[in-house]
Amino acid sequence: MTRRVIQYSTGNVGRHALRMLIERPDFELVGVHARSPDKVGRDAAQLCGLAELTGVVATDDLDTLLALNADCVVYTSQAETRPKQALAEIAGFLRAGTNVVGSSFVWMVAPEQAGDWLRDPLAQACAEGNTTLYINGVDPGYSGDTLAYTALSLAERATSVTVQEICDYASYDDAEFTGVSFGFGIAPEHTPVMFLPGVLTSMWGVQVRSLARDLGVELDEVRERCEKWVTPEPIDCVMMHVEPGQVAAVRFAVEGLRDGEVVITMEHVNRLGPQTAPDWAYPPDGRFGVHRVVVTGSPGVEINTHLGGDAGGGTDHNEGGVIATAARVVNLIDAVCRAPSGILAAHDLRPLDHLTGVMR
């Protein structure tokens, strides 16, 4: 069955999702949303680097897209900085009978743990439209659910599990959101939005709690920690220019404790260039990025995922990350369209659900 689909936004993730929707024979692209005036009115192919025009032009009119009655919308628009507007947009599609897959609203990666302010109106919209919602990505997402499940399935007994993203963001062209959120290129005294009290826990804590629930572990506490590293030398990279004395690397984590011991950790180590934060962890084998799960127990287990780089035919690791984020939700379109009404999490899905259309 060919699914009629809409791509909502054409940014770092969205342009790759759009290309996938155009190139795959199991989808018919019927609509594209763009906010930027220089994108509105342009053919979808032009917005994702394809030569052959599709005849589908981008619009900023939500009502026009709702009226298409598509089977599914791929929602990759930035939601975390505009939650009320994004909530209204996603709920509008769900109420209108269009299923939604997306990489935004990372709190919904573990929907049972998300706040009522977000989960309840989305669940109500699903009920009204008899539709289904699935939000996921690479991290938060894959590394803290699918990869963690795989590693833990190999253990006779686990005493702790650590999920890590260790990645050099220097080649990632996203200073406006990632750079600002992580506090790159600013004085260390400034507290970026990501490190305001409770923000890390709100984003990665949902996966800590969800994994604990999946494991039957009752946590006593969920806590967060963060560190900054200041460069002594100027740095010029794709992300931004960083002056001496400004932040060029961050390390943060959300930890779940049981009986006073850390048993579940979701940790990030992100830097701008391999010369930064030399005492912090690096990816193995000279790579620039890794998503890793380490299980201590019997036996110990470590699984490393590398996106792009040598694993991707020369694709930059950050480009590989956004391609993988897009694929993570595009590949679920058919499964979401077939699922009962409601909000899905990764633990509701079969492993094969994420493979639809991959080898074609």
UniProtKB/TrEMBL annotation:
Kindly give the Gene3D superfamilies that the UniProt entry links to this protein: NAD(P)-binding Rossmann-like Domain
Q: What keywords does the record list, in alphabetical order?
A: NADP, Oxidoreductase
**Ranges where the Dihydrodipicolinate reductase N-terminal domain occurs:** 10-78
Oxidoreductase as UniProt keyword: yes
Give the highest taxon in the source lineage: Bacteria
Which GO terms of the molecular function aspect are on file? 4-hydroxy-tetrahydrodipicolinate reductase
SUPFAM superfamilies on file: NAD(P)-binding Rossmann-fold domains
Keyword Thylakoid applies: no
Entry's Gene Ontology BP terms: lysine biosynthetic process via diaminopimelate
Q: Which residues form the 2,4-diaminopentanoate dehydrogenase C-terminal domain?
A: 208-350
Q: Which InterPro entries match?
A: DAP_DH_C (IPR045760), DapB_N (IPR000846), NAD(P)-bd_dom_sf (IPR036291)
Q: What is this protein called?
A: Dihydrodipicolinate reductase
- Species of origin reads Mycobacterium asiaticum
